[in-house]
Amino acid sequence: MMRAIVALCMAVLWPGATLAAPAALDERQEAAVTMQAAMVHPQGSETLCGVVDRVDERNDTLLIRLSPDRIEPFKVQDGLIFNAVRFGDPVEISVQNIAGFRTIVGLSKQ
């Protein structure tokens, strides 16, 4: 039971972490852990393609040029993304609405 509580706390307090269920959990406890993880990372992500226009690490945002006349700011869920992209990189991003902000939850360079 203690492992389940620790796993749930990790999922809530550290949303970027991968949640791995301990081997000693029974099926009901594992389902509860999986449901909690699903609540932390809600479904409904949107996939967009664009080019990195500006990296604003101070404000945890990337500005992505989605079309020649449209640039949008996106919050970054994982700060390691800043190490992976530079100005002018073509990217495909997965975006979710988290706490009222459009947030990048996944990124791949094209």
Task: Compile the SSE list and pairings.
Blueprint: H1 2-13, H2 27-40, E1 46-56, E2 61-67, E3 70-76, H3 81-84, E4 90-98, E5 101-109
Parallel strand pairs: 3-5
Antiparallel strand pairs: 1-2, 1-4, 2-3, 4-5
Helix pairs in contact: 1-2
How does this model look, in words?
It is a single chain. The protein has two domains: 2-40, no CATH class; 46-109, OB fold (Dihydrolipoamide Acetyltransferase, E2P). The longest helix is centred in the first third of the chain and has 14 residues, at 27-40. With 110 residues, the protein is an alpha+beta fold. Helices cover 27% and strands 39% of the residues. It starts with a helix and ends with a strand. The model has no long low-confidence stretch (mean pLDDT 79). A five-stranded mixed barrel has the order 1-2-3-5-4. Helix 1 (2-13) runs parallel beside helix 2 (27-40). A hairpin with a 2-residue loop joins strand 2 and strand 3. The radius of gyration is 17 Å and the shape is globular. The protein has three helices and five strands.
Q: What distance separates the N and C termini?
A: 44 Å
Rg to the nearest angstrom?
17 Å
Query: In this structure, how is the largest beta sheet organized?
Result: 5 strands, mixed, barrel
Specify the structural class: alpha+beta
What is the top-level CATH class of the largest domain? Mainly Beta
Query: What's the pLDDT, averaged over the residues?
Result: 79
What is the count of β-strands?
Answer: 5
**Corresponding CATH superfamily of the largest domain:** Copper binding periplasmic protein CusF
Strand order of the largest sheet: 1-2-3-5-4
Number of domains: 2
Proportion of residues in extended strands? 35-45%
> Which residues sit in consecutive blocks of at least 5 with pLDDT less than 50?
none
SSE succession: HHEEEHEE
**Count, helices:** 3
Roughly how much helix do the residues carry, as a percent range?
Answer: 25-40%
The CATH topology of the largest domain: OB fold (Dihydrolipoamide Acetyltransferase, E2P)
CATH architecture assignment name of the largest domain: Beta Barrel
Spatial shape: globular
